[in-house]
Amino acid sequence: MTWLTPTIAIIAGAIAVPTLLVLYFLKLRRRDLEVSTTLLWKKSIQDLQANAPFQKLRRNILLLLQLLALAAALTALAQPQIQSDAERGTRHIILIDRSASMSARDGDPEIAPSASAARTRLEEAKRQALELVESLREPSFFDAAAGHRSGDEAMVIAFDTVGEVLQNFTSSKADLRRAIESIQPSDAPSAIASVFKLAKAYVPRGVVENLGFVSFGEPAVIHVFSDGRLPDAGQAEAAPEDKVLFHAIGRPDTPNIAITALRADRAFDNPRALSIFVGVQSTDTQPREVDAELSIDGRAVAVRAITLPAAHYRTGAEASPETGEAQAVRTLEPGAGGVVFQLDRPEAGIAAVRLRPTQGGTDRLDALAVDDLAYVVIPPARRLTVAVVTRGNLFLRECLEGLNLSRLRVIDPAVFQQTVEGKPVSAAGGPMTLGDFDVIILDRTLPEVETRDAAGAVTKGPGLPPGRLLVLGAVPPPPVGLIDEGPGEAALMVDWSRDNPALKYAGLADLVIAKSRKVSVVPGSPVTVLASDQNGPAIVEAADGITRALIVPFDPGESDWPLKPGFVLFLASSLSYLADDGASAVGRLVQPGQTLAERLPIGATNVRIAPPQRDAPVQDLFPAADGRIAYGPLRSVGIYTISWTGPAGSQDIVLNDEGGSARVRRAVAVNLLDPAESIINAADTLPLASAIVEAQQREQGRATRNLWPWLLVGALAIIMLEWFVYNRKVHV
Amino acid sequence: MLRTPSITRPKSIEDLLEPDLVARLGQLDVASRKIFSGKLKGERRSKKRGESVEFADHRPYVVGDDLRHIDWNLFGRLDRLFLKLFLEEEDLSLHIVLDCSGSEDTGEPNKFLFMQKLATALAYIGLVNLNRVALTAIGAAEGGIVSTVRDLRGRRRLQDVVRWICTLEPGGTARFTEGAKRIAITRRGKGVMVLLSDMFFKEGYETGLRLLVGHGYDLFAIQILSPQEVDPPIGGDLRLKDIEDGDTAELTISAPLLKAYKANLNAYVQRLHNFCAQRDIVHLMVKSDAPIDVLVLDYLRRRGLLK
User: Which of A254, A319, A453, A677 is the most core-located residue (most Cβ within 10 A)?
Assistant: First the structure.
């Protein structure tokens, strides 16, 4: 038994017990009463004393009962707890890690990790969880009939980056077994903080003022079945009354070799030249040599040997969440290596890099297979056709000529106006239509276009023609545009979307605009602000069904932007951003566990996505108005193929189906590529925000039971007994 | 049982007897189970031949008889002297003994006040029926007798009775045996004696009762208890103090104690009853909350004290 607050109880007892005694003796001062005769009373007392040997005790029974009640209350104040083996009527929350590292085949510690027959960690976790379920206490028949909860209840949550409740609280072991057995491994990294929140949400709780959330009923026991590779465990916080039991799965010394980075790039000046970068890490404490095999579209292309240095442990200090004291922490520094494949390949394709043991090695590289293989979608070598509508802009022209474009055509605004109106134009470069160009740059000019307002009246005025447009130094009016509020003073960029591919390398940080332009966005219009200066939006993206435009309202010539390399990079990246129909997942890192968000060309219909598994069902998707689709969370690594009918993006592959209808395909590679998840050395502690939980030594945890409620109930019962005795004494 | 919080002593007949009760009491008379000879000729039929108008018998004249009682008509017829004998009507002695000890001055209603009212009612009945009424108060005084009045007859003496009753103040320990002895020595004639007391005498009631009974007196022992003595409404830790001698008893009231007290009281009353029954004493137990009119008009008539 442990006492949480013995000091308070001792102090309270030192005050309360003498007080009670004093009160009792004060109370015992007898009341004087004159009676006609004491004759009969004395005789009665003699009679009673003669036949009641416990009369003395009876006189003090009230004091005794009061002392007993006080003792019970004081003991309750000390908050005693006992550990009981029988976790009677406990709520168990079973959290099973199904992340990528749980697929490592070292689950059964009896079998050497190299043996291919070894169980995965997930299988071992499921086995232990099933054992736990078997050990749960069954509800008694009468309680079940009365609808009371007397047996143990458990809920099952499987988690990788997100948690999924497979079974809500139930005492049915069959349901729990079914839920646990249904858990399938996932290739996603793991995150536990949100899972704790999810688990908490299912425990009935209420808000108590000044205390925050408190759970009603008995506290839950949270069982974590995991290898402990939980990078965000420090943010996971269990309720203080809940008990967290960590069932460590796997071996702490399992080495793993993993691909942690993969990227396919084409040379800027020579799109045919393809470079594929592969980053590899090893957690083996011995130096390792592995082969990296590159295959494109299923055919092996090249094999390179990679030598990986030994991983080593680094000792550092970290503050303990419980005591705040610094404690030594050993972190594993994996050995890192890499290889670059150089290819001459203009076509698109899907490259796969697989790590293999070197010749003569065993057939299995390591315990975890999912990170030994990674895919990358190679974009086709393609150059853009760009038109510049300008009255002459030296900077722009020089910059664009420096880009590796397929064709650059400079058009006079008057000629462009005719093109917009659909009139045949004979110009220096030959006849042209708007569709001839991937991107059109409008430099300080806007063509006259016909717009139809809500009433159906057609008006003509400056506006954006259909197509993909980069607008510099002009403000197209709404709806696909901005409200022009006139010129502004000098301005600096204050905020911009650093993740946007168009602005990534634009160098906006030290950009000085001499003459800014005040604009504002119509709420509800299809305009997204990408960058802002002091006056408001400075770079926006506008898109409706037929037009997609990046709009720079101020004139770059009135700033120092053209003098900086960022301007060239902005032009290059915004051209490819516009031409690529937005953020394409091609070449982007998509991890399992994430949601796949893609932007398809506008007008794509009949969209389907095929997961990498051959037997997995193809799912239909319905794109939003701007062409976005979302799918996920992604469970496994591999190539997900999105196909649709309709227009194709610049890097999409158009195939003719058997039916003759053209289907456009886009491949998205999903790779783990997570250095943290690829360190599969099982941890023996779980450093939660509230406490560091040591791994269970393969035994059932013992529940902590608070005794103070029972003591208070006892005190109440004694007080009621005292009341009864007092009344019996006084009245007839 | 408890001391009466504030007691107003009676000052006049109105405090002791209600007028309508007085009217009804006039119809009653004191009854004696025996017909006793009295000292004066009264309204009571005596076994003695006397001077009433009711003829009883003749007897021959002997020398020394009162010539006024000779039946001259018979002498004329028979020429012999006969005396006419009449049933003599004689008075009855009604002796009311009040216990003036401190223990009487308790209870709600007050026992002593009750006793005063009852004594007045009985004395009134005795007076209007031309009985010889005597009243004696037994108390803590030397010799056991606090005060006494005797030889009262006729309705006019009621004022004397009331005045005497109103002067009584209860207090001290009654010397019952001593007082009974004095009464037994000094009382005259024969009649009815009514003892009003709670009969709580620490020295014992046996000797006193034994002295009072006999000598031609028909003894009625009326034991007056307050309702609080019969059913004590007390609780808690108490120090009980005897109102007469200051003796204390410390006790904590509990249900078993109350039960034992009641059993003891019952046994005490029963033992007294048995004692009285063996000695031809009529024992009556009345509670001080009993209505005087019901008690006098109904209860005492049924028990033979009144007719």
Answer: A677
- In angstroms, the CA A586 to CA A377 distance is 6
Task: Summarize pLDDT for B244-264 with one digit per residue, the tens.
Answer: 888 888 888 888 888 889 999
What is the domain-level CATH number for residue A298? 2.60.40
Residue A590 lies in a domain: no
Q: Are residues A29 and A158 in the same domain?
A: no
* Residue to test with chain B: of A38, A48, A51, A724, most B Cβ within 10 A: A38
Tell me the average pLDDT across A99-109. Answer: 75
- Name the domain count of chain A: 5
Torsion angle of C-alpha atoms B183, B189, B194, B197, degrees rounded to 10: 0
> What ipTM was reported for this prediction?
0.77
DSSP A79: -
Q: Is A58 on the interface with B (CB under 8 A)?
A: yes
Q: Residue A693's domain spans which residues?
A: 86-253+681-701
- Single pTM value for the model: 0.50
Query: A122 and A225, same structural domain?
Result: yes
Query: Which domains does chain B carry?
Result: 13-35+91-302 (3.40.50.410), 45-90 (no CATH)
Q: Do A315 and A452 reside in the same domain of the chain?
A: no
Interface of B with A in 2-21 (CB under 8 A): 2-3
Find out whether B64 and B70 touch, Cβ atoms under 8 Å: no
B78-109 residue pLDDT tens: 998 888 876 555 567 889 999 998 888 888 88
Residue B4: list chain A partners with CB under 8 A. none
> Is some CB atom of chain A closer than 8 A to the CB atom of B107?
yes
Residues B109 and B119: their CA atoms lie apart, in Å, by 16
A104 and A63 part of one domain: no
Q: Do A732 and B258 touch (CB under 8 A)?
A: yes
Give the nearest partner residue to B264 out of A34, A35, A43, using CB atoms: A43
Grouping H, G, I as helix, E, B as strand and the rest as coil, residue A335 is strand
Residue whose tokens read 């004491």:
A38
